[in-house]
Amino acid sequence: MLEVISFYFYDQEPDWVPPEPWDIHEMVSLTVGENGAGCNYEVQLCTRTALKRLTDKRHLFLLDEWISREDTIAKINQFIEETISKNLSEDPYQLLARYWLWEYEGMN
Predict the structure, then answer these.
(1) Is residue 35 part of a domain?
(2) Considering 7, 32, 34, 65, which has the largest number of Cβ atoms within 10 A of its Cβ?
(3) Which residues neighbour 106 within 8 Å (Cβ) at sequence distance 6 or greater?
(4) Residue 29 in contact with residue 42, Cβ under 8 Å?
(5) What is the pLDDT, as a whole number, of residue 107?
(6) Domain range for 16
(7) Burial status of residue 45 (CB atoms within 10 A of its CB: 0-12, 13-18, 19 or more)
(8) Model pLDDT for residues 12-40, shown as the tens digit of each residue
């Protein structure tokens, strides 16, 4: 099963904790795959509070609030599992590209 292999903030340190956990908007880079290999995605990680201010609402992953890096990765993994299990006949990487900016977007 695919899962998050790497998770990096664009503008924050790995141990970053937001001052207002209910109001965040951060770009993250994810590698999703299995057995150490996968594909890269760029994702706008944000809370519903921050969503109101966004003009570009593509490639989102919504959180109610920031708990921790580990909690966020667990929620993303749950989303990946649920999304792929509903569409077993499709390429899982292209399926996730419907939601997030995929490194191969536009190369079909």
Answers:
(1) yes
(2) 32
(3) none
(4) yes
(5) 55
(6) 3-102
(7) buried
(8) 988 899 999 999 999 999 999 999 899 99
